[in-house]
Amino acid sequence: MHVGIIMDGNGRWATRRGLARLIGHKRGAQQVKKIVKSCPDLGVDTLTLYAFSTENWKRAAHEVAGLMKLFRGYLANNLVELHGKNVRVRFLGDPAPLPDDILKLMDNLATLTHDNTGLNLNIAINYGGRDELVRAAKAITREAIAGRLDVDSISEDTISAFLDTNGQKDPDLIIRTAGELRLSNFMTWQSAYSEFAFLEESWPEFSPEIFAQTLQNFRQRTRQFGAVLPKGASIAE
Ligand code: IPE
Ligand code: IPE
Ligand code: MG
User: How many other C-beta atoms lie within 10 A of the C-beta of residue 4?
Assistant: First the structure.
């Protein structure tokens, strides 16, 4: 099962406690470790974490710099443990505007863990669902112009294959913490038939227990993908 998480509410969590927003982000980064670790026991084989959106550059320069510093720390400090736990790490989003040293850390982690067969962990950094579609449209157009792709053969599968999630299944469940009821540009294409869980808890308050409870609620739902099913039936994930 694929779960996407919009990790929201770090700033408010800190502000409520009279702390700087960056302290909330720091707590948020610690949460990531716990949640990643809990996935295998909870039946989650793919986890996509929304860490930084294409719109998050609009924040104050010191907040953006602080977030970059946290990414740097997370990527450098977790490389050995993630690899040791057989996690395969991939990154979603446009890497181009990210600092060179972060790009190198991302590349190292993705390369090192490439053949791992445990949890698939996608980290979305400078990710926007619309930006992803624009980049896919450009890549598809280039292939067509070069004569490698017949325009009439373009299907939903073609578009899926050109997205950053290339080849991965769509999220079964998208969780957003901290009470906002929106996607904020997360997985625009891939979320077409996702289930949603909008939680009141902020990301620093989210825990493996809340995660387990949210998954249990999700498993009660009927997913029919447009079909009409007999009572009690559901189309499996
Ligand atoms: C989510 O927390 C982390 C990022 C977007 C990077 P926020 O920073 O958005 O926290 P709130 O929503 O302001 O509380
Ligand atoms: C979405 O949260 C992005 C991430 C969690 C990385 P935001 O806090 O940026 O979203 P808005 O601005 O409230 O829509
Ligand atoms: Mg927010």
Answer: 27
pLDDT tens sequence across 119-139: 999 999 999 999 999 999 999
Q: Ligand 1, closest atom to CA 7?
A: 1
CA–CA dist 176, 196 (Å, integer): 8
Q: Is 150 a catalytic residue?
A: no
Cβ of 179 less than 6 Å from ligand 2: no
For the record, the structure tokens of 166 come out as: 């290339």
Closest ligand to 21 CA?
1
Which ligand minimizes its atom distance to the CA of 55?
2
Q: Which domains does the chain have, with CATH numbers?
A: 2-217 (3.40.1180.10)
**Hey, what long-range contacts does 215-223 have (CB within 8 A, 24 or more apart)?**
215/1, 215/3, 215/42, 215/43, 215/44, 215/173, 218/172, 218/173, 221/195, 223/193, 223/195
Segment 135-162, tens digit of pLDDT: 999 999 999 999 999 999 999 999 999 9
What is the position in ligand 1's atom list of the atom closest to the CA of 202? Answer: 14
Is 152 among the catalytic positions? no
